[in-house]
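Hi support team,

I'm filing this because I wasn't sure whether my run with glyoxylic acid finished correctly. The job status page said complete, but I'd like someone to confirm that the output block is well-formed before I use it downstream. Pasting the exact inputs I used:
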Amino acid sequence: MSILFYCPWHNQNQWFIEIKKKFKNEKIFTLQDKPHLSKIKFAIIWNLPNNILKEMKNVKVLFSLGAGVDHILNLSNYRSQPIIRLKDKVMAERMANHVLSQLLFYQLNLNTYLNAQQRKKWIEDIEPILNQDITIGILGLGFLGSFTSSQLKKLGYNVIGFKYSKPIKNYSFPVLYNKNNLKKFLHNSNVVVNMLPSTQETKHMINKFFLRAMKKKSLLINVGRGSTLNEKDLTIHLKKNKQFYVSLDVFEKEPLLKSNPLWKMSNVIITPHIASITAIDTAVEYMYSKYCEYLKNGRIKNDINLVKGY
Ligand code: GLV
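And here is everything the job wrote out:
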């Protein structure tokens, strides 16, 4: 079967080597090989150009090299082919670790000590809040959100979740649902972790009203998608509320433009979309297992609910 691999990342060669090793009986092409795109049946992709997808008239499965699939759904030539997204324990661990690192940086006042170090100042201690006195609100309870929530709960934090629709499964922590409860969820959270995907419904969901509903002294961690956050509203809010902190891993436009004021704000931590980096070996293993499932059954269920858009 002809497989296309398309990945613009710096480590694409490493990916290609691992994929060829695992799919050793198959022909793996890159665009450089100039394959007959109409013969491609299975594609392993990240940020594939729209015109290439158009040429792949007979593609049966699109495999996302990440957990997110907006890079496929946003292509106008996408024709509802099944998409498989990565659901990988390594990525989940990385996400939970990243969220915990940002939470502890805030909780233990490490920013203040870092500033003091830069000024060579031996400052007085600041008593940190205990885990049991911190409520973390998680927005988005998918694979990564659920894992992160359970890790935080194990550490003794209070965890609450929020979903737009009524939860269909049981969670080990309270989950508020329905738009009318969003304010209550925000009022109750000392830290809000956004793990929502990019959809029409989530676009600029974090805007001035959302931010004003959060506690004045609180932390927002955005590890979902940049499109969910209105950066202009956030910048204004950060200027007015010096006790309000954000940790941003995703942005409306990536890489973040040098001219963006967020870079220089003292209540902002910026990381370059690294919260949950894909792990090559486990990802390739997962893809291969899905590929075998497809070969065995001749079809595969779409991971994406096309009505919800994620
Ligand atoms: C990263 O953002 C991913 O979608 O895996």
